[in-house]
Design a protein that fits this description.
The chain is α/β, with parallel strands linked by helices. The chain has a single domain, classed as Rossmann fold (3-Layer(aba) Sandwich), CATH 3.40.50. The chain is 31% helix and 29% strand. It is built from five helices and nine strands; from the N terminus they run αββαβαββββαβαβ. Helix 4 links the parallel strand 7 and strand 8. Helix 1 crosses helix 2 and helix 2 crosses helix 3. The longest helix has 15 residues. It is globular and about 45 Å long.
């Protein structure tokens, strides 16, 4: 696909989807599972991929890294623009996962526990330039865990793109303190009183 520039209409399409279909639980949970991470709106995912390419497309990247499960669809469709493979960090051990892996730690605030994510070493090499993509950024733990994997591999993390950043939570700031170039397509300012404020 040819080079593309950021199209404000793409961002407006995403904004409308979040405002029209998003559901708020409490003051900190935004559910967008009708189009982003349970049921998938492939046309909207294509818009998201195009928007990520508009921001990061000038970078020479070798891989896109994401975490299972929610990031896979986003990364796969975006990869069509970047023309690079997608690698996803696995959350569970299985018999068909290579025993030789890079591992990162992720603390889950919702579960109150730390778990490991893994990438087979054969799929992440030293000196590769890696772009991380994910659906949400709240506390930054998943992206921090993927950065840990990239660092262990001797690769270079060139940036992190997220569809939705909950800017009232500390994730983006923590990642920027680690030197990560974070780019969110949409920032949610608050979810107070059941209202989505962008």
């Amino acid at each position: 696909m040819s080079s593309t520039s950021l199209n404000n209409n793409d961002i407006e399409i995403l904004r409308h989807a979040i405002l029209d279909q998003g559901r708020v639980i409490g003051n900190d949970i935004l559910k967008v599972d009708s189009f982003l991470n349970h049921q998938l709106d492939v046309s909207l995912l294509n818009t998201i991929g195009r928007a990520f390419y508009a921001h990061f497309g000038q970078l020479k990247i070798d891989k896109i890294l994401t975490a299972e499960v929610s990031g896979i669809a986003i990364a796969a469709i975006a990869a069509q623009y970047f023309k690079v493979p997608v690698v996803f960090a696995k959350k569970t051990l299985s018999k068909n996962l290579d025993p030789d892996t890079w591992e990162g730690s992720v603390y889950s605030y919702t579960k109150g526990q730390t778990y490991q994510i893994r990438v087979a070493r054969r799929y992440l090499q030293a000196d590769e330039k890696v772009l991380v993509l994910d659906d949400f950024l709240a506390n930054g733990e998943a992206i921090k865990g993927m950065k840990e994997i990239i660092d262990l591999a001797g690769a270079q993390m060139v940036g992190a793109g997220v569809v939705i950043e909950k800017s009232f939570q500390p994730g983006a700031e923590k990642l920027r303190e680690l030197g990560v170039d974070v780019h969110a397509l949409i920032r949610v300012v608050s979810l107070d009183n059941g209202q989505i404020n962008l």
